[in-house]
């Protein structure tokens, strides 16, 4: 040390550490992060818009809606990409509300459904399960729920469209309990429904929020009063009130308690009734959600659980996005910050390769907009330019080495031969297919017959196949042809080839192999799969590829 410098005062250096720790702890305690899981049309765009309005992140109703509508009219992904020069897969919306910083991870639905949708849930601390009151649980919601279940993500249920005729609320709760094995706990309870929807009773406070349908426009007005308020009977039909109270008694008799520990373990879901379109019940939902939601918590790594309060930065890549800006042909790696404070220009280490990387232009993403971010905290998501350096599941860290648990593969449901009609382009074709597989754009399978060299693309959504074709043409200069195969179900054989050899000839399924020469069985439907399992009870199959 320079002899002219003042002696190091160890007391003050401890103070600095304490200050840093306190500011990290403060940032973490304010952070909430969630994804919405729903089926198309349940009202995700509408609810997102209302939440962003409360957060002041958008100035007017319609800002998000416009995006939703644009998607609907331009159903073709490539068209949209061409027109707007961007791709439309999921991004992150960050907004502040009531002293909290909220990260809403967008999980696209409709034709944009892909493995990225699932991967986004790997970065989420909470999920909001949005149901249409008239439809209850729908297929896409169930699939996304299964992914949440794998990590025991806390689920908050919002039952939407209460202003319209819907199913019996008790039956909606029963369905959640019976089919998802998730205990529902209604935080509020509807008085009437459809045309006769009069509002909700808050079960914890016994306050009533009355719903008044607006004559014109769609915004409902809310009026708050207590259940014992003498004015109430003149405002709501006694019959409807009696019925709601009777149902509430049934719920109380059922005995479950709103136990936050169970919520955080993903075993109990607080349920809210409302109407996103008329903005009824959205603010109470947001307030209750912020109160009950899980803050960023410790995550599993190779070195045991890592607490978000660990002073050194760490995070993992949960999604790679190509061509967000076609002028630069760039890729963006989305990183979920898990511990410490992330700072611009930080030099981090990549756990997989051990390489050091300086992150000079980290980005904050808001929908399609990007701006350079100076710092980020656990629960946040940052975007890094990725010149082929990162892979899905990669851990970035400073300080001592940590490596987060990988992101699982998801069971593909769409299978298609990928044909390369031009033999002279074979090298590029193979290179492109391998690189896109490594990037996680799609899963690749091969026929067991070596003479059939063409790869089989396996995906969870059609969009993935379209993207692969589009990118092979634009980035590798190869035109390809897709030839759909009539399969819908894939299963990895847990005990490998010997298990298959023992079984002899099997029917109604096709045996293929993955990129690691492991056997995979393809079935036309679940029925054929179950038939095989009935015939061979000892056979162990897995819906997802074992981690390599
Ligand atoms: P999504 O993103 O989940 O696909 O759903 P989105 O928000 O686009 O909503 C789907 C449709 O449901 C929209 O109607 C929307 O207005 C309507 N909706 C959403 N929330 C409610 C609600 O609380 N009550 C009622 N009655 N309807 C609701 P649309 O006809 O497709 O569009 P628009 O003409 O209303 O814009």
Automatic annotation (TrEMBL):
Record protein name field: Peptide chain release factor 3
InterPro entries in alphabetical order: EF-G-like_DII (IPR053905), EFG_III/V (IPR035647), G_TR_CS (IPR031157), P-loop_NTPase (IPR027417), PrfC (IPR004548), RF3_C (IPR032090), RF3_dom_3_sf (IPR038467), RF3_GTP-bd (IPR041732)
Family the UniProt entry places it in: Belongs to the TRAFAC class translation factor GTPase superfamily. Classic translation factor GTPase family. PrfC subfamily.
An MF annotation (GO) of this entry: translation release factor activity, codon nonspecific
Compositionally biased spans, kind Low complexity: 1-11
Boundaries of every Tr-type G domain copy: 29-297
Pfam families assigned to the protein according to its UniProt record, in alphabetical order: EF-G_D2, GTP_EFTU, RF3_C
SUPFAM superfamilies listed in its UniProt record: EF-G C-terminal domain-like, P-loop containing nucleoside triphosphate hydrolases, Translation proteins
Signal sequence, start to end: none
Keywords: Cytoplasm, GTP-binding, Nucleotide-binding, Protein biosynthesis
Keyword match Iron: no
Compartments, as annotated in UniProt: Cytoplasm
Keyword Endoplasmic reticulum: no
A GO term from the CC aspect: cytosol
Amino-acid positions noted as binding GTP in the UniProt annotation, renumbered to this chain: 38-45, 106-110, 160-163
GO biological processes: regulation of translational termination
Origin organism lineage: Bacteria, Bacillati, Cyanobacteriota, Cyanophyceae, Synechococcales
Described purpose of this protein according to its UniProt entry: Increases the formation of ribosomal termination complexes and stimulates activities of RF-1 and RF-2. It binds guanine nucleotides and has strong preference for UGA stop codons. It may interact directly with the ribosome. The stimulation of RF-1 and RF-2 is significantly reduced by GTP and GDP, but not by GMP.
């Amino acid at each position: 040390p320079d002899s002219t410098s003042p002696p190091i005062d160890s007391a003050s250096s401890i103070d600095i550490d304490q200050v840093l720790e306190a500011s990290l702890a403060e940032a973490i305690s304010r952070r909430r992060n969630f994804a919405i899981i729903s089926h198309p049309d349940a009202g995700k765009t509408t609810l997102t818009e209302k939440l962003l309005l409360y957060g002041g992140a958008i100035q007017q109703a319609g800002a998000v809606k416009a995006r939703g509508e644009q998607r609907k009219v331009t159903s073709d992904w490539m068209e949209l990409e061409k027109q707007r020069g961007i791709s439309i897969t999921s991004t992150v919306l960050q907004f502040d509300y009531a002293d909290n910083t909220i990260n809403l991870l967008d999980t696209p639905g409709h034709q944009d459904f892909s493995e990225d949708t699932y991967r986004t849930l790997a970065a989420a601390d909470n999920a909001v399960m949005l149901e249409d009151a008239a439809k209850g649980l729908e297929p896409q919601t169930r699939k996304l729920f299964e992914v949440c279940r794998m990590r025991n993500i806390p689920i908050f249920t919002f039952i939407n469209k209460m202003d319209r005729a819907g199913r019996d609320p008790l039956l909606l709760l029963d369905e959640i309990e019976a089919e998802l094995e998730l205990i529902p706990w209604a935080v509020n309870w509807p008085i009437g429904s459809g045309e006769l929807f009069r509002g909700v009773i808050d079960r914890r406070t016994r306050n009533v929020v009355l719903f008044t349908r607006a004559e014109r426009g769609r915004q409902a007005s809310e009026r708050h009063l207590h259940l014992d308020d003498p004015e109430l009977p003149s405002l709501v039909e006694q019959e409807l009130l009696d019925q709601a109270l009777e149902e509430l008694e049934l719920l109380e008799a059922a005995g479950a308690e709103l136990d936050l520990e169970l919520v955080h373990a993903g075993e109990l879901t607080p349920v809210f009734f409302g109407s996103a379109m008329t903005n009824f019940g959205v603010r109470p939902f947001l307030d209750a959600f912020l109160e009950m939601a899980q803050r960023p918590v410790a995550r599993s790594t190779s070195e045991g659980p890592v607490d978000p309060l660990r002073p050194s930065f760490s995070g993992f890549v949960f999604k790679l996005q190509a061509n967000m800006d076609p002028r630069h042909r760039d890729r963006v790696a989305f990183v979920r910050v898990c511990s410490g404070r992330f700072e611009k220009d930080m030099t981090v280490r990549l756990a997989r390769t051990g390489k050091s990387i300086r992150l000079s232009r980290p980005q904050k993403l808001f929908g399609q907009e990007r701006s350079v971010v100076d710092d980020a905290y656990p629960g946040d998501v940052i975007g890094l330019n990725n010149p082929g350096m990162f892979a899905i599941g990669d851990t970035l860290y400073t300080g001592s080495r940590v490596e987060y648990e990988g992101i699982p593969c998801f069971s593909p449901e769409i299978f298609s031969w990928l044909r390369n009609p031009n033999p002279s382009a074979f090298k590029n074709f193979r290179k492109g297919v391998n690189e896109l597989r490594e990037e996680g754009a799609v899963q690749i399978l091969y026929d067991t017959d070596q003479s059939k060299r063409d790869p089989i693309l396996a995906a969870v959504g059609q969009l993935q196949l379209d993207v692969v074709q589009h990118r092979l043409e634009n980035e590798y200069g190869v035109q390809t042809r897709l030839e759909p195969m009539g399969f819908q179900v894939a299963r990895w054989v847990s005990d490998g080839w010997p298990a298959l050899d023992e079984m002899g000839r099997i029917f109604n399924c096709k045996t293929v192999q993955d990129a690691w020469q492991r056997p995979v069985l393809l079935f036309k439907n679940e029925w054929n799969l179950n038939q095989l399992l009935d015939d061979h009870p000892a056979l162990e199959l897995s819906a997802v590829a074992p981690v390599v």
